[in-house]
């Protein structure tokens, strides 16, 4: 079993695509569908505090800090509250992981997904957030990459696949809200497709509901693309009333980041993404679509500003023999990060490798095998490993100040 986990985590990538489309969509029939998934059943959750067996509940979240000689220099203790009611709950939505991509917009049934692998990917990216409280991670019918990226389909066709995936996220969150929240504060967190779907949820349920906004600690929407606005307030783009966090202690706001190699150009925005969708705007899942000629794109710059600063990189330790069995390891003094802006619409978190030639630790950002839809130097699949420590520092500040 240990070797299986090692193999899966070692080759963990944010992959794209589908075994088969669950159904075909007609452009003129687009609407928010009613989810067919029963979220009262614990089998439709990767992690839920009420599951009779919850693997995350017993997962050691401590982080071993590894020095350049592959020795453990210190250990960071992280409490595991995945099933403990701390007054804060975490709702996590995983990124795309599908095999043999379809070229059409649509969704893939849960039965046709590698749920074991996805469960491991949730541990790799999001498990550390169980520090803050009960951890909920639903299964859902993933949208195929064509639903996000295809220039060969209409905007309405792409939106149809997204809407079905979103219907599952909305149904699972509503089930949590109605049956389990009991007044608790909420951390929303996800990556890539998971962040896009959460962005729709933030607009649909939180943005115009002051009572629900009061519950929101933060929405950590890693790797989503894009937070945009016509002014520096960061309001009035995807969301009318919710923008990027202005200070680390602020609650009820969004954290967004996307990672790139420092020395390479940031790619142009992708106009097939949901923030450009008139269909999603009409249905109420986007407040206003992106207008590149008038908008400025934003991302987090509270911790990493325009000057390079040290970055603590955290990755699953189980894949490395120097971890001494730790599920997570941290590499310090290996990378720096800075907020980089090349234009009003090209911005990102720029990462630089700074370790000296004698450093024995693996450079996980070197020669990343990425999908054809990502350009060289796009560290998207490592967004959470790059930023999770910084995110947790800011969540700590919020809990200590505004809760």
Spell the H/E element sequence: HEEEEEHEEHHEHHEEEEHEEEEH
Q: Whole-number radius of gyration?
A: 20 Å
DSSP summary, beta strand count: 16
How many discrete domains? 1
Structural class: alpha/beta
Uncertain residue segments: 1-27
Cα-to-Cα separation, first versus last residue: 41 Å
Work out the oligomeric state of the chains in this entry. single chain
Mean pLDDT: 91
Side-by-side strand order of the widest sheet: 1-6-4-8-9-11
Number of helices: 8
Largest sheet: 6 strands, mixed
Overview of this structure, please?
With 403 residues, the protein is α/β, with parallel strands linked by helices. 24% of the residues lie in helices and 20% in strands. The chain has one domain. It has eight helices and 16 strands. The strands form four sheets. Strands 1-6-4-8-9-11 form a six-stranded mixed sheet, sandwiched between helices. Strands 2, 3, 12, 14, 15 and 16 form a six-stranded mixed sheet that branches. The longest helix has 25 residues, at 155-179.
Which SSEs are present, and which pair or pack?
Layout: H1 2-10, E1 45-47, E2 63-66, E3 72-76, E4 88-93, E5 107-108, H2 115-126, E6 134-138, E7 142-143, H3 146-149, H4 155-179, E8 185-191, H5 193-206, H6 210-215, E9 216-222, E10 227-229, E11 253-255, E12 259-261, H7 278-283, E13 296-298, E14 309-316, E15 328-341, E16 347-353, H8 383-401
Parallel strand pairs: 2-15, 4-6, 4-8, 8-9, 9-11, 12-16
Antiparallel strand pairs: 1-6, 2-3, 5-7, 10-13, 14-15, 15-16
């Amino acid at each position: 079993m240990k070797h299986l986990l090692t193999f899966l985590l070692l080759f963990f990538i944010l992959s794209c695509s589908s075994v088969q489309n669950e159904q075909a969509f007609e452009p003129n029939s687009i609407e928010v569908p009613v989810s067919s998934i029963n979220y009262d059943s614990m089998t439709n959750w990767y992690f839920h505090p009420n599951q009779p067996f919850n693997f995350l509940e017993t997962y050691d979240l401590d982080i071993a800090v590894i020095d350049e000689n592959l020795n453990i220099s210190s250990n960071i203790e992280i409490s595991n509250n995945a099933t403990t009611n701390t007054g804060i709950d975490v709702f996590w939505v995983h990124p795309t992981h599908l095999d043999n991509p379809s070229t059409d917009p649509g969704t893939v049934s849960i039965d046709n997904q590698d749920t074991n692998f996805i469960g491991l990917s949730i541990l790799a990216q999001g498990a550390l957030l169980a520090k803050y409280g009960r951890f909920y991670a639903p299964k859902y019918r993933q949208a195929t990459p064509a639903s996000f990226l295809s220039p060969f389909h209409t905007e309405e066709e792409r939106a149809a696949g997204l809407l079905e995936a979103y219907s599952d996220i909305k149904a699972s969150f509503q089930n949590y809200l109605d049956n389990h929240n009991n007044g608790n504060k909420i951390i929303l967190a996800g990556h890539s497709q998971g962040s896009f779907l959460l962005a729709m949820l933030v607009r649909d349920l939180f943005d115009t509901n002051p009572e629900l906004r009061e519950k929101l600690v933060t929405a950590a929407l890693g790797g989503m693309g894009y937070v945009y606005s016509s002014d520096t307030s960061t309001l009035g783009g995807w969301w009318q009333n919710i923008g990027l966090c202005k200070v680390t202690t602020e609650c009820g706001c969004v954290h967004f980041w996307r990672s790139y190699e420092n020395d390479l150009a940031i790619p142009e925005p992708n106009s097939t993404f949901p923030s450009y969708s008139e269909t999603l705007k009409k249905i109420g899942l986007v407040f206003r679509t992106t207008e590149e000629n008038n908008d400025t794109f934003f991302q987090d710059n509270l911790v990493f500003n325009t000057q390079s600063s040290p970055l603590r990189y955290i990755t699953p330790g189980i894949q490395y023999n120097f971890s001494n069995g730790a599920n997570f390891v941290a590499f310090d003094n290996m990378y720096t990060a800075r907020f980089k802006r090349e234009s009003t619409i090209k911005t990102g978190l720029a990462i630089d490798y700074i370790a000296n030639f004698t450093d024995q630790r693996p450079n996980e950002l070197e020669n990343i095998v990425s999908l054809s839809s990502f350009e060289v130097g796009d560290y998207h699949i490592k967004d959470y490993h790059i930023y999770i420590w910084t995110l947790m520092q800011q969540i700590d500040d919020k809990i200590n100040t505004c809760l």
